[in-house]
Amino acid sequence: MSVSFIDGNQGPGPQAPNPPKPPEFKPGTIKKLVIGAAAAVILGYVGFTSFYTVQEQERAAILTFGKYDKEVEAGLHFKLPYPIQQVKIVPAELTQHIQIGYRQEGNSIVSVDEEALMITGDENIVSADAVVTWKINNIRNFLYNIDDHEKFLRNAASSSIRSVIGSEKLDYAITDGKTVIQDKVREKLVELQNKYETGIQIIDIKFQDIEPPSGQVEDAFRQVTNAREEKNTKINVAKKYENDVIPKARGEAQALIESAEAEKKSRILNAQGDVAKFNAIYSEYANNRTITEDRLILETLEKILPNAKIFVTNSGSDTVNYLPLNELMRSGGGSSTSGSATGGSGQ
Amino acid sequence: MKKGSIFGIVIVVLLVILGSGSLYITHEGEYKIVKRFGEVVRWSEEPGLGIKIPFIEEVTVLPKYQMTYDSTPTQILTKDKKPIIVDNYTVWRIKDPREFLRTSQTLSGGIKRIDEAVYNSVRRKTSEINYDNIISENTERGNINDEITIDVRNALQRDNYGIEIIDVRIKRTDLPEANKESVYNRMISDRESMAALYLSEGDEESRKITSKADRTATELIAQAEADAKKIIAEGEREAAKIYNEAYGKDPAFYNLYRTLESYVTTMQNEPVIMLPIDSPYARILLGKE
After folding, report:
1. Which of A67, A302, B142, B179 has a 20 to 30 A CA-CA distance from B249?
2. What are the strands of the beta sheet with B272-276, ordered from one edge?
3. What CA–CA distances, in Å, run from A17 to A13, A20, A27, A39, B133?
4. pLDDT given for residue A320 in this prediction
């Protein structure tokens, strides 16, 4: 509403530069116009410098005669004109980031070696880059207690990171140590913000990378990783061999046992069979010893003799009589010496 | 009316000139120093309106807020004679504007004082400390940053510069290029030996596993063979027991029986049998009585 009032008064403003054109104006009217124009200019100035807008993510600090007066939230606000009141608008609700060790410009990432490279506790060199997330938590300190918040933040972050990495070993830093180191850095960084009273709240610090310096050193590190993989491969191959050999051996061992058991069983069963046969014959033998004995002998001879070549020796004369029983049986006639006996015994 | 208004305007202009000449504003985060003919008579550090005598007194401004000063990195030699480049930053503020103006005149003058003090202090302190203590910041007496801060603070206080040192801190430590190269080479050779270790450890583990597997396999088989022999022996024993029990009843008959049985098996094919003429069987064969 006030704005429209100012605009209304500015209406006669443009006419003021043209007083010579309408000569019928009285001098008094010209003077009024001049005063009116001056008033309009002053009011316009007051209007434009007295209204300000604070965006949602912003907060405004109001200084009255240079003194920190109050903080204002988002919206359209009015203040007294300069030099009585001044307004400072800061993005107090905005979460902001700064990059340590690298800069992101658009889509390209450029590493900043003099920030990223640092010496570890075991006198190696490591490259570490991080993002610090922060916001303003005390507008007065943020505006009037430090000269350049980015410089403060960057210096504090760099020194905190360097200090923590400087007490850690390289291998720990590039492997398991990342989260622990992050926590320690955050602690130090928060401590420094409190010490300097920067009005900055550290929300988080996250390492993008903690790694060996790029180039030859990086290659050497990669070779270690490869070697570790190769070690694991070798172990796996050996385990494969183990998994191949041992079950096979177990199987073979079981097979040996099984075959032994089988042999044992068959030995016993054979013995039992033999004994059963023996017992059967023996029980007959017990009934009639001589007959059974003779029968057994003869039966055995019957089994053997058909294929046998029998020589009958005369102990007195040293003559050997050949009795080819089998040949006789096969041909039915023969050329043997003791022909007389053959017929009877052959049948 | 015309004369009166001109007179009025002149009065207003004069009032404005006098007003602006006799009033001044001290803003947040600054000192306003009132000088009379170049001499500091008073200063205000609380923000707000102040009054001075127009034309006679003039006002200059100095920052009350903290500033950071980045020193140029300096190469120093540690106690254990290792070269190292140390990069510091200093957080400072003006504590006494009068002393500050008297000794330094301008901000850059003050910075020059700080630079000198920090440079001297860092050189002296770091040369008393071993390399690894500088890197880790921990010395026998505490923290190296604290030591340097106190040292610089004392030096500047002693000379009354009106400067307050809040903190002097190592921002970065670096090595001269040549030393950096040798560290890189050492790191590379470190890694190479580590890689070699991994590879031979792989061989070691592999040999361990395969030979153990071989051993286990061999032992399994040997054990099984031993067990098998025992089992077979048991079978033998049991069989013998069975035979003994049966055959023991009549050893003479067993002898006959077994002899006959063995004839059957040993005299297969075409055995040659020598019979004495007077043996019973020959007699049966030849029909002689």
Report:
1. A302
2. A320-323, A309-313, B272-276
3. 8, 9, 15, 15, 77
4. 61
Q: Does the beta-carbon distance from A223 to B191 stay under 8 Å?
A: yes
The structure's pTM equals 0.69
For residue A300, give the nearest of B167, B263, B282 by CB distance.
B263
- Chosen for mutation from B173, B273, B279 (greatest number of chain A CBs closer than 10 Å) is B273
Task: Using the predicted structure, report yes or no on whether residue A6 has a pLDDT greater than 60.
Answer: no
Per-residue pLDDT reduced to its tens digit, A236-280: 999 999 999 999 999 999 999 999 999 999 999 999 998 898 888
A96-214, CATH topology level: Tetrahydropterin Synthase; Chain A (3.30.479)
User: What is the residue range of B29's domain?
Assistant: 19-62
Residue A299 pLDDT greater than 50, yes or no: yes
Query: Is B198 an 8 Å CB contact of chain A?
Result: yes
Looking at the complex, report in whole angstroms how far the Cα of residue B177 sits from the nearest Cα belonging to chain A.
12
The distance of Cα B119 from the centroid of its chain, to the nearest Å, equals 31
Cα separation of B64 and A69, whole Å?
18
By Cβ distance, the residue of B68, B172, B174 closest to A152 is B68
Asked whether residue B182 is domain-assigned, the answer is no
Rounded Cα distance, A30 and A35, in Å: 9
Q: What is the pLDDT of residue A338?
A: 40
User: Would you call B169 and A314 a contact, using CB atoms and an 8 Å cutoff?
Assistant: no
Report which residue type is found at A269. Answer: L
| Distance (Å) from the alpha carbon of B284 to chain A's nearest alpha carbon | 8
ipTM rounded to 2 decimals: 0.73
Nearest-neighbour CA in chain A from B236: distance (Å): 7
Mean pLDDT, range A219-241, rounded to an integer: 93
Q: How is chain A split into domains, by residue range?
A: 2-90, 96-214, 219-287, 303-339
For residue A329, give Cα distances in angstroms to A306, B167, B270.
8, 131, 14
Q: Of A148, A264, A344, which has the smallest distance from its Cβ to B68's Cβ?
A: A148
